């Protein structure tokens, strides 16, 4: 038998694994690497397949997005056409991809065959398991080339890139409104149907989405799990924390193309634009008054019904909105700085004061 130590490529010296056959050793040696990303491969075929990831010759003529293979492009085009080829025989739901249907079927059977060896959590697909593992390692492999933001999950990354491209491939067949994700479209359609399947067991209020109910429940429990590492303020959800942090950084990423004014939140920009256009799409069926936002209409309707859901636990007084209750509470407590305990009437004044501590310009 030929001694494998006599192989002249020098690579076997890096590996202490004993091999009895040249073929076994060859399989263990990495001989091919990608010239673009340097990823190693054990065969030329694997390398050639990998290189296609860097080349995307198949381009969508609708949105100009490019793909590695023609089959991927064909699947993508279904988002534009609305074509759904794969149907669930149990609930009748349609899917663009067969793999999505297979994963969906697990929601009926409850089967989750892929288990995380670290925390024992289970998943319907191996891809979901792989992305879950990133939470344990801290790895965020999906990085946006435009703004540099990284993500644990490919789905989050894809949805994020659409905020740069403006792509909204999911269309409501009732009103024509478009959305960046299928979940946003499903959420939106419940506005038309009036469906609110998620009900609070404490107060009976119902919600379109489960995450809205989760956020609402925190108003009962007082839980504010999202904490600002700069000033210590806590919030009901992560989106409120992200918006809050912009008060420290001064970031206002949402800009009005009409007057140039910038905003911390996209929703504030939308409301602002309506002040230019005069659009007030939310109309009260009782008195005929119209409003810029649905939340303004909801608050207005409570003045007709006398519904005052927000109660002060100190004096028992009730209010139409949480913002009115918050303002009222300051008559009892004031707004106190956690650093020097100085009190303020408004939250805006308190935030301005906190920034004097952070910038070193504070004077007693």
Automatic annotation (TrEMBL):
Domain of life: Eukaryota
Matching InterPro entries: C2H2-ZF_domain (IPR050752), Znf_C2H2_sf (IPR036236), Znf_C2H2_type (IPR013087)
PANTHER family attached to this UniProt entry: C2H2-TYPE DOMAIN-CONTAINING PROTEIN-RELATED, FINGER PUTATIVE TRANSCRIPTION FACTOR FAMILY-RELATED
Primary localisation category: nucleus
UniProt xrefs under SMART domains: ZnF_C2H2
Lineage of source species: Eukaryota, Metazoa, Spiralia, Lophotrochozoa, Mollusca
Subcellular location: Nucleus
Protein name: Gastrula zinc finger protein XlCGF17.1-like
Domain C2H2-type: 32-54, 58-85, 86-113, 114-141, 142-169, 170-197, 198-225, 226-253, 254-281, 282-309, 310-337, 335-357
One Gene Ontology term of the molecular function aspect: RNA polymerase II cis-regulatory region sequence-specific DNA binding
Organism: Octopus sinensis
Pfam families to which the protein is assigned, alphabetical: zf-C2H2, zf-C2H2_4, zf-C2H2_6
Entry keyword set: DNA-binding, Metal-binding, Nucleus, Repeat, Transcription, Transcription regulation, Zinc, Zinc-finger
Keyword Transcription: yes
GO cellular component terms, A-Z: nucleus
């Amino acid at each position: 038998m030929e001694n494998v130590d006599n192989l002249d490529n020098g690579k076997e010296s890096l590996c202490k694994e004993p091999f009895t056959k040249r073929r076994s050793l060859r399989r263990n040696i990495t001989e091919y690497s990608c010239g673009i990303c340097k990823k190693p491969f054990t065969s030329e075929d694997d390398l050639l397949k990998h290189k296609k990831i860097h080349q995307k010759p198949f381009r969508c003529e609708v949105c100009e997005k490019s793909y590695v293979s023609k089959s991927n492009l064909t699947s993508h085009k279904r988002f534009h056409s609305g074509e759904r080829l794969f149907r669930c025989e149990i609930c009748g739901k349609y899917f663009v991809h067969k793999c999505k249907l297979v994963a969906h079927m697990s929601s009926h059977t409850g089967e989750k065959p892929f288990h995380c060896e670290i925390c024992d959590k289970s998943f319907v697909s191996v891809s979901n398991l792989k992305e879950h593992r990133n939470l344990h390692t801290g790895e965020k492999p999906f990085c946006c080339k435009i703004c540099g933001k990284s993500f644990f999950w490919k789905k989050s990354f894809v949805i994020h890139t659409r905020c740069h491209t403006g792509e909204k491939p999911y269309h409501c067949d009732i009103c024509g409104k478009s959305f960046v994700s299928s979940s946003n479209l499903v959420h939106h359609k419940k506005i038309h149907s009036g469906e609110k399947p998620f009900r609070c067991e404490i107060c009976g209020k119902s919600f379109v989405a489960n995450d809205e109910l989760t956020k609402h429940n925190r108003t009962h429990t007082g839980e504010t799990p999202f904490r600002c590492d700069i000033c210590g303020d806590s919030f009901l959800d992560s989106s409120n924390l992200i918006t809050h942090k912009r008060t420290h950084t001064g970031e206002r990423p949402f800009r009005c193309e009409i007057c140039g004014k910038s905003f911390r939140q996209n929703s504030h920009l939308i409301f602002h634009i309506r002040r230019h256009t005069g659009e007030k799409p939310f109309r009260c069926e009782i008195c005929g008054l119209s409003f810029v936002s649905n939340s303004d209409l909801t608050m207005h309707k409570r003045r007709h019904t006398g519904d005052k859901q927000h109660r002060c636990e100190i004096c028992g007084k009730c209010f139409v909105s949480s913002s009115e209750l918050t303002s009222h509470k300051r008559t009892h407590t004031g707004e106190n700085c956690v650093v020097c305990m100085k009190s303020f009437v408004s939250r805006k004044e308190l935030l301005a004061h906190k920034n004097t501590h952070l910038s070193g310009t504070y004077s007693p």
